[in-house]
Design a protein that fits this description.
The protein is about 10% helix and about 35% strand. The mean pLDDT is about 95.
Length: about 400
């Protein structure tokens, strides 16, 4: 297993709320006349990635590999890909997300992080212990993700999809070679913690038609995750999903979760999808997540506003629940249930303060919560991995930032 330091990017420019740039696609086609006994890929996507081998998404979980200060730890994932390969042409492909390498937020100085850059990746493909290629030999193009920021949301234009881009037989002659990118300073490491996964599925309890032509989907629970959109419509139809916790004056209200750069209209927990048309389409954002009970949907017809339009995929670090509490007092039991729901909504690799606004790892909050986490969940590996990042963030006097990961706050 090699931690490649040859980082590659599609561009030197990075996307911002003021200037949208699409997320990059990367691919590498190669021939295998004979299948190796063992093949493995070690990959670092800064900030996030999804990886495909011969068209199959093999990514370990959402927002991979791990959220960190890349000058402290540089996280890689390792995959045994032997079972995905075939004789003849094979393809390894990536979609890259901005994640923590490009946080476009003024709050807590995230816009000024010293490592800010366009998404980039390092990858090493090894067969029977020999290196066949690294990320610097990939080709790249633009994805259908036209904007993405993990606080703000994602915009996706299905008309821009390139069918088969991540599989063999695709013509990539119009694609360009990747550019070399700077290698972050962090210590390379495989994260020893559970990935982020889907831990529950929720369906709409009701649909509220508003006076201004939108439809509010009420899931009757306040959790974290994403909605899968399931729709059939006309080419070019734009559907907007606004996620929130409260309704005010007949609309989903997001004033309680606005801050910093995302106070601009359209950048508070809002996803957009443009249909390619002609068939049933499913879409779920790739590199963000939201905290919500309600989703206000605009851009759809009354006929499209079915219960099956949205499915709430609840997400959290995928550790096991090992404890519980209940008693003969209904109020205490309800508080316990709310506590557990808050735990899971706020554990995305490490404990966070909220899933819909800052999404920050506040160390003071977690210091008071860790005993309670451990009473209910088998989360010791995840807490230890975060503790490594806390150690790295200490200054020479031993003081630590209030938020980890962060820049120098």
């Amino acid at each position: 297993m090699k931690f490649s330091s040859k980082f590659a990017a599609a561009t030197e420019n990075y996307s911002t709320i003021k200037n949208h740039l699409p997320n990059p696609l990367m691919r590498r086609s190669f021939m295998l006349p004979v299948l190796p006994a063992k093949s493995e890929i070690t990959v670092c996507g800064e900030g996030c990635y999804e990886i495909f081998v011969n068209g199959q998404n093999i990514t370990k979980g959402y927002m991979a590999p791990y959220r960190s200060n890349p000058d402290h730890y540089l996280y890689y994932d390792n995959y045994d890909v032997s079972s995905y390969l075939k004789q003849g042409e094979n393809v390894v492909a990536l979609i890259l997300g901005n994640g923590f390498i490009n946080p476009d937020q003024t709050t807590w100085n995230f816009k000024d992080v010293t490592w800010r850059s366009a998404p980039k990746a390092a990858l090493c493909f090894e067969a029977d212990g020999k290196i066949l290629f690294e990320a610097d030999s990939f080709k790249c193009s633009e994805s259908a993700i036209t904007f993405e920021e993990f606080h703000a949301g994602e915009h996706y234009d299905a008309r821009l999809e390139q069918p088969g881009w991540n599989d063999s037989g695709f013509d990539d002659s119009a694609w360009r070679n990747v550019l070399p990118a700077a290698t972050p300073k962090g210590e390379p490491r495989i994260p020893d913690c559970e990935p982020i996964g889907i831990i529950g599925v929720h369906y709409p309890a009701r649909i509220i038609k508003t006076s201004h032509g939108t439809f509010i989907y009420d899931f009757a629970v306040n959790c974290a995750g994403l909605c899968e959109l399931n729709i059939k419509g006309e080419r070019g139809q734009k559907v907007t999903l606004l996620y929130g916790e409260t309704i005010k004056n007949g609309k989903v209200d997001v004033t309680n979760i606005s801050f910093g750069s995302n106070t601009e209209k359209g950048y508070i927990q809002q996803d957009e999808y443009i249909l390619k048309g002609g068939e049933n389409e499913k879409y779920m954002p790739h590199f963000t997540y939201h905290g919500f009970r309600y989703v206000e949907v605009s851009g759809i017809t009354a006929a499209q506003a079915k219960l099956s339009l949205l499915t709430f995929m609840e997400m959290s670090s995928a550790f096991e629940e090992t404890g519980d509490f209940f008693c003969d007092n209904a109020d205490v039991n309800a508080v316990t249930e709310c506590t557990k729901r808050s735990d899971r909504a706020n554990f995305m690799y490490f404990p966070t303060d909220c899933p819909q606004r800052e999404k920050n790892g506040w160390t003071g909050d977690a210091a008071l919560s860790c005993d309670q986490f451990l009473l209910l969940y088998d989360c010791s590996r995840s807490l230890k991995e975060w503790l490594r990042n806390i150690f790295k963030a200490q200054n020479e006097q031993g003081a630590i930032p209030g938020i980890i990961p962060t820049c120098d706050w």
